[in-house]
Structure formats: C-alpha cells, structure tokens
C-alpha cells in the first residue's frame, strides 16, 4: 500500500501537467504518458519545487493568466485497477496506469519425466546411484549446468527431476533421453518443398524442435530425392516430433506462391507512389507481394500467402495492369544527361513525387547509358502536367563557376571550414566544390540559392585580394629542414610573428619553391627573413671532428645534459653525433665560421681531458684478498676511489680473473695501484721483484697466447708476472707473489730468457688431450724425467686454449729435437691399443666401482683414457680387464695394485666427540670434513643422530681431550670412525680433535654487557661473524661478569682479544661520558627565553652546535620547576663558553626597548603581506621584532615594536609611512563600494508558496482532516513498520 500511495503522488503530479497541456490544445483524448514503473518519494519541499516548475511553464490559451486550473483528487491521484473486478469489460478504456503489467517468469524451472523399465538402458538396480546411470547424470550436470535427481519407482522405472535455467534444462533433458533411455527410430514423409520450413532460418526451428521433443531429427540433403525425415529417440519423443513436423507441413499446404510476369514499365503503377498501393493491397488481401526494384531488370512479381489471399491479390494486380495497359500512352523528351539526377532526386524521391501528383511514370535511361531520352507513361490528359514538372525539376538546379586564384582557396574555406560553413548553413541545398590546383570554384544547387552563394563567395574573394598577398621564393632544397627547425620551431616563429602562412614542399616533391601567403606587409617581412636565413646558411662552415665513438656517450652526458651545456654556450652551432649503429668517429659541427672554430676548440679540450682521464691499469691481486680491498660495505675501495679520483672495477665473484682495472689520470691510477698493492702486502707475505730482460725477448717469453709465462706462474704457486706494455721500450718485468715462489719464478724466467737469447728454438707436437695427463705423469713425474734428460721445456695447453692437442717444446735445437722424439715415441706407444688383465679380490671391487665409478674415472683421466672393466656383481670372478695404450695399461695396473695395498693395509680407528659438537666439526655443508678426507686420504663416518641421548649427561670433554671416563664407556652416538692407513688415520684424528670447540670465560664488567650486545644484538652478532665463534652473554637478572666464548682454539683466542679490546673502548667512552656530564645553571629572565631560542630554535641550535653542549629551558607548564633557570651540560670548558655566549646575548636583549604604535587595522594585512613575507623582510631590514594584536583584542590598532632604540624609531617611522600610503587605497576602495548597486533579490518579495492544491479531496468530507505530511504514519518511509490507525483521510488501508 505504501508503494501505491507514493506512486499516486508521482502520477497525480504528472497528470496535472498532462491535463493542463491537453486542455490548452483542445485535445479530446490524452495520450498515454506512463509506460514504465518507477517510484519517487516527494517531500513538501519537492512538491513546492514541482509546483513552481509547473507554474513556470506558462499556460496560455483557454485559461486566464490569473486563474490556474485546480484538478480534482481523482484526476490527480487515479485509483489502481482492481484485479478481476466484476463488471469489467474488454471495451473499457485503458486507465492512467497503462496496460496490464506482465507477470515476471522465474529464471529457474523444474521438469519431471518418467522412463519405463522396458525403455531403461541400464537395468541393474543393485548398483542404483553408483553405476553407469549415476556417472552419466554427473557428466550431463557438468556439461549443461542443470541439477538432476534420480529416483526409482515401484514399477522399477526411473523418475528424473531436472532443475535449472530453461535452456540448461532442455539440453539436459535431451541428453538424458539419449543416454539413459533406449532409442527407437521412425520416418515421416512430407513434401520436399516443406523441408526448409522444418529446418527454419539458420536451422533454429530444427534445433528448437529437437530440444522440445528430446529427439534427433535427420532431414535429407537438398540433392537427395528422398522426402522421408528420420526421427530417433524415445517413443513418446518420436510421436511428439512426428506430430510437430506434420503440423508444419499442413500449415504450408495452406499457402500458395504465384509468379506473375508483367512488363517492367507498368510496375510503378502497381507499386504506386512510395509503394503505397502495393502495401494497401498486401493489407487488404493478406498476401505478400514482392515487386523487383527499378534497378533490377526483372519482370516477375512474386505473390505468397494463403491460397485465397494470393488469388485475390493476383486478380487485383491483373486488373490494375490491364487498366493501365489500355488507358496509358507515352511521350519521349530529350534532357541533358547532367540534369537527369535532378529529375530522379535523392533515392528516386522526385520520380515518386511526380507519380503521386500526376499519376504518370517517368522512365529514366540507365546511368551508364549515353542516352538523354526520358519516357513519360500515363493517361494522355496527365502527360502535360507531368512533362511540365519534369522540365521544372531539370531546371531547378543550376551549376556556376567562380574564378579565384588557387592559393586563395584555403582562405576562402577558412580555418576548419568556418567561412564556407557559414554559407552552407544558410544555403544548405547548395553544393560547393573546390578543385585542387585549378582557379575555379563550382557551385551547384537551386538557382536562387546558387546566385546568393556566388555573390557571397565573390565578396569573400574581393576582400581577401585586398587584404592578402603571396610571394614565391626559390630556396635550395638542402636548406628546407634548417628553415623548418627542430620540431618546426623556426617556421612556427615566422608564422606567428608575421601572421603569414609558409608552405615548404615535401622532400618527395623535389621542389625548391617556397610559398608565403598572408598580410602583404607580413609576407614581405617573412620573405626577407627567409632569404637572410638562407644567406647565413650559405655562409656557414661545416667541420668534422674525429672523436673515438667510445667517448660519444660521455660527451653527450646523461639525458643529453652535457651536450646541452655546449649547445647553450654556442647556440648558433649545430652539433651532430653519428648513429651508434654506424660505428663512426666523425662528429659534425655546422654554423658561422668563427663560432664553429670556437666550438671545435672547446670540444677538443673536453676530449683531451677525457683521454687523459681514461688511462687504464690492470693490477693482478690474489682472489682471496679482493674482499679485503673492497672492505666492509665497500669502505676501503670507496676511500681509494675518492682520494685518488679514479674508477676501480673488480671482477665478479664467480669469475676466475684476478685482475683489478683502474681507470683515470695516469698519476692517479698509479697512486691507486700502489695503495691496492700495499693492502695485499699487509695481508700476506707478498714480495715484489723486478727482473731486467731485453724488450725484444718479451714476446717469446710470453709465448703463444701467454702459454709460456702462464706455465711458469702455475708452476711457481700462482705468482703474477707483469710485462711492460708493448712499445713502451721498458726492460723491467715485475714478479709478485709469496717470497719463496717469487725467487723460484725469477730463476726460471731468467733461465728461460737466457735460453731464448742463446737458442730460441720451438717445436710443436700433436697429441690427444686424454694422453696429456699420462704424459705429464702423477705429480708431473713423467714430464720432469723428459725435461731432466733433454733440458727442453715442454708446455701443455691450458683448459681455455682452443688448440687442446698442441704441445709446445722450447729450448736449444738439439734438446728440443731429443724431447720431441721421446714424446713422439710415447704418443705412438699410446696409440697402440692392447688388452690385459689382472686379478683383484672380489672384496675390493666395491671400492673401485662405488660412487658411480669415481676411482675408475680418475684412472682413465690419469692414464691416457685406459678402460678398466670389473666383473658384474654376483659373477664371483676376480679377473679385471684393462684396455688402452701399452704404457698406460701397465701404469694403470701398477696404480690399481697400489690402491689394493692401501685397502689391505687400511685400519679403522674410533674417536669419541660429543654429539653436540658434530655439526661444528663438520662445518658449513661438511667443508671441514671434506678437507680432512682429501688431505689425509681417509674415510670419515659419523654416527646416526640419537635425539634421546641428547639430554643425557655425558662425561666432560675439554679442549679436544677425551676424559678417562669417556674412554671407558663412550656413547654410540658420539663415536666417529676413521678408515685409512694407520699413520694417516692418526693425523686425521688429530685434525678432528682440533676442530672440537672449546669454551673460554672472559671477565667483563656487567655494566658493559648491553654495550657489547649492541642495538638489537648487532654488536655481538658482528663479533660472532668476524671471529667465527659463539659468544654467550649472561641474562641481566644474573648480574654475572663472565662472558663465555665457544669455538675453535685459534678463533676463540682471537675473539677473546677482540672482546677485551672492545671493553677498553667502552671504558674510554665511559670516561668521556663522565667528562661530558658536567652541568652548569644560569638564571635568565623568562621574557628573554623566546629571543634566546630564536625563530624555530635557530639561535639556540647554533649555540649548541658551536659549543657542542646540551641546553635545556624550563617547561612552561611545570609549576615545580624554576621558571628562569637554564641548564647547560657538556665538557666543562664548552659549558663555560656557551654560558658566556648566552650572557652576551642577554646583555644585548636588555639594551632593547619596546614601543607601541597605533596603526589602522585595515592596513595590517597589507603590512604583513602574503604569508608574512613583507613583515619578515621589514624585521630583517631594521633588526627589530614587530608584534600585531590577536583577533578580538581590546586594542586592535596597537602594534608593538622591539629592538635597539635607534632601530625601533626607524621601524616605527617606516610603519607610519606605510599606513599613510595604504590608507589612501583603502579610502578609495570604500568610496567606490558606496556607489556600487547591491545585488537585488527578486524573490524576496514573493509570498509564501501555496502548496499543491486539489479539489474534492477525501479530507474535505465532514469529519475528516487533511493528512499530516510530517507524519510517519500518513507518509511512511519504505521498510518501516507503522501500526495502522483505524481512520485515515486516505480511506481504509489495503494490505
């Protein structure tokens, strides 16, 4: 009911407006105006607005202006129609609510159908709900989105309930029938021509039929002569489908199609003007009549529909044709081809108008025909008027041409077509066409309008010829882009400055003609400037600078910042850098000769500085020292870079390179190199030696791709040998590395240099890479024997060399020849493959083949790729086969025998280390254990972890020594087993015990613990990482002075020293804090405190900073604190100096005076300025403080000025001058405001709104009262429950 009441309000208001407008227009029947359904809640205010809106639309005509029409209550609020009211008739007029509201259908539907037992496809009831039927239903539910429920009836039939959207339910039903119900098939025969109606448009009818009947319908193809349609599905579905198909066929039997061939010339008479006659025929007969369009050369008219309707339409069309055939005649006229389009009109409308007016058909020749003959067909007495109309239409449009220079065309058109747009808006039927490059404008349209347009265009042309001029200048095409400038800067400036248009031809036009159009004076000035620019460019000079491409980016700078500075310095010079892809070094400068020379010198200076700063040095530094050179957080490297002004690049962590590259000035690079080398020398016993070797021998000593010098470096413990750069002429060769290795490398280098100088003979030998290890021998034994016998030096390729088979022999010729012969013999023997065998006990086999044959792989690598084959597991054979070069096989057999001897002599010893130390002994990722096993050639096995034993007390083990109690009863989880040779096991045991962590107590005062721990534990964490130990600090509540350090012996000792050093630092800091805690107080009048503090604390902050002290002022809100005492704390001397500085400041403040000056409050804002800018400037200028009164002050004009007496007087004089100046402006503004008319308020005199008035309302009846619009009962809000009252002005409430 609340809804209907609200709607009544809305409809009633709308009907008032509708009724008023209807009454004024004398309409007998109001048009329906409310088609939708919407709700609006109108408040008294919105009612008033609505009424005022209605009142603003003045109602004139029938109702006098002073008398508004008052509607009745029923007119304003029509009642809702009662559902099924008695006496309601079909012929009753529609109510104001419009037609009946259509019910909304539910989007989800449910269908239930039954499958009899005999038609069920799956009849096994023992698995109901689990078998194939359930699987099929689940699949259908997933595919269609419908919900399916199965139940078993008493007759063992299936009841199926499908729920979902209509489309989903229909699809699911079809699939259920097809997959759960046995299928039958039947055929139905209907005429072949009816098949297309069964299929429907795009097959939609057939799909709908299949879904509706849950069947599959197969219709024969058009080329198939069969008329039988096959239906597959359930019996019920087949019957339904058959019935529907027969209904479609029966419906089509009632229809007929007639094709009538009539002369094309008479078609317009049958169709009528604008096809009205044929439409009337279709409506009267109910048949569909299709007449081919005039453009289609067909005579056939097709009539379709019910047989009776088709027959009636056919007879009517024949009657029209026969009548026109008998009565009409024709005449032919000649009309110019160009005028034909005006006779036809837009979309043939003109022809239709002539036919409608005169009943004469006008036949036009085809557009592609050259014929100018037009035929008029009609009754003789009507041909005359029709001919008159044809000639009138032909002459209704004229075409004229206006001559205008081609360059003026765009000015005639105007900016964005403004000029021509005004003409076409006034004369819309005139078509204006401009031809590019021709001096004519074509106008086409009605004669009168064309003449008007012609006159307007000629006026525009005359005006433009007076105001506009043009000139043409021939400018070489190479200067065009310079005239345009970057992003059109030059040409746009000329256009704006001289108000002209400049047309520069495109590059593709290959033309030098530049056209200038616009104001005559501007055209001449622009022409002069363009010619001057060209002359300047002709006098320009172009200079090429050769600058290595690697410097280009540096000269340009980031985002072009550096080159922008150069261009700003030389604005007339254009600097062009080549494209990076061109790999060119030429930088082009273009501009005035003098400027180009200056710019070239400036750039050459920049390039010289760059070259000087791009000197590069490479320093070899051992990889393990790189992190020390970088320093913590990059501190060391950053310091070296800043102090030497160089760029230092280190190789990446995963790189094998040891070279550090230094770039900058030569002297700076050398200084940085010395500092880096000094760090390396400090960290290790690094020695540097210089050897004098003639420069001519350097290349031969280095060898092919550095192979000779690299072999010396590798042989001598990784020393660095640095040769001077080629062409330097220096003989000094630097050797750097461990002291002993440097001397060894020095001897070898000098020996090699001597050999090179005496006999520098080199030979090369090819050998397979897998033979190299065998030729070298274990520990280099084989190759050393060859060297000792021959005296030649043999160099094998490194893994990075491309030629992996090339062996180089260096020395005296006879020695080289002898070594070459020996090596060739060895290689030849290696190429002779033999097969041999040896006996190895089965118990040792596992050692060789375990770890994926690691031992066998090592044998193959070491002995020239020899293949060793052990028998398969379980074969119980002791025969091992070796295949390879004879010498390699023999050597491999000897090595296998050595390994067997080692295995047989192996012992296992046990060492007891507490389980809790095992992880520390192993190290990160087991690195410590791996190192011991490699170094001592032993196997170490740790026991399984026993968590249950972790909490048990174990005998103490201190500093790696096992106690007697532990030896007598070691726990299984503590025992580590070492296997290998007896002597090596003992060494490994010693090494293991050395890894057992020890604990040392360090005495540190309890007060210092928190400083050692650091913020969030950072201090203690840093020490543990640095010394690789664990540091335990006691809990604060224990107040213990003992800190425990746990780790390896060496690390613990280092950590202990570091901890004690940190304690010394902290004690020194404590002493310093004690000295800094000196305090002094001074009494200062509180009125001086703000001055001492200064604006935003500027003054006091400067004192604190200058004297390194802390200064505290008393809190304003603290009543217990003395209000004039200032506390200063810091070093005693600094405190005294700060106190003197404050006393001096106070003395200056005491000399200051304060004076009041009275200034008109209206000038205060002007004196203060925007955000106080003006008053701050004034205070800084006169060295005074100026205070203005607060808003609401008793004395709003009193301003206080504080400062030294002379400065205060000067400031007051200046303020009074400002007041006098500003008051003139204030007085003038107020005088002007007095004469300004105040804004009128037209609506102020309007009387109160009358509200919304209706006649014959329910509350006008005796005993009723008007509803209270503020009442929640009479005007409830939606959703609010209100107790109903018994009586209401609205009548009884309906629920």
UniProtKB/TrEMBL annotation:
Region of interest: Disordered: 946-968, 1238-1295
Subcellular location: Cytoplasm; Nucleus
Keywords carried by this UniProt record: Acetylation, Cholesterol metabolism, Coiled coil, Cytoplasm, HDL, Lipid metabolism, Lipid transport, Nucleus, Phosphoprotein, Repeat, RNA-binding, Steroid metabolism, Sterol metabolism, Transport
InterPro entries, sorted: KH_dom (IPR004087), KH_dom_type_1 (IPR004088), KH_dom_type_1_sf (IPR036612), KH_Vigilin_N (IPR057778)
Taxonomy, superkingdom: Eukaryota
Coiled coil: 1128-1155
One example GO MF annotation: mRNA binding
Domain K Homology, first and last residues per copy: 182-250, 254-322, 327-395, 396-462, 467-535, 539-608, 613-681, 685-754, 759-828, 832-901, 905-997, 998-1064, 1076-1147, 1151-1220
GO biological process, one term: lipid transport
Pfam family, one: KH_Vigilin
Listed SMART domains: KH (SM00322)
Entry GO terms, CC: cytoplasm; high-density lipoprotein particle; nucleus
Record's function text: Appears to play a role in cell sterol metabolism. It may function to protect cells from over-accumulation of cholesterol.
Name the record gives this protein: Vigilin
Lineage of the organism: Eukaryota, Metazoa, Chordata, Craniata, Vertebrata
Gene: hdlbpb
